[in-house]
Design brief:
Elements lengths: L1 H31 L2 H31 L1
Length: 66
């Protein structure tokens, strides 16, 4: 039981320190204007995935009709 409590406390502390580091990193990137580059890259990736899924759906629908 003691091991579970220690593991849980370690996990909570690791998560909290990670969240603080990410917040600081986001603040630095926002200050440098690089956050917009990250947003554009993510938007491009999601648009590509969405386009591929639409293409794949149309192709599968066409094969099902045949």
């Amino acid at each position: 039981m003691k091991k579970i409590a220690i593991s849980t406390m370690f996990l909570v502390l690791a998560t909290a320190s990670s969240a603080l580091a990410q917040t600081e990193m986001a603040d630095v990137m926002r200050a440098n204007g690089k956050i917009y580059v990250v947003v554009v890259v993510l938007a491009t990736i999601f648009a590509g995935i969405f386009t591929y899924l639409v293409y794949l759906d149309r192709k599968i629908s066409k094969m099902e009709k045949e």
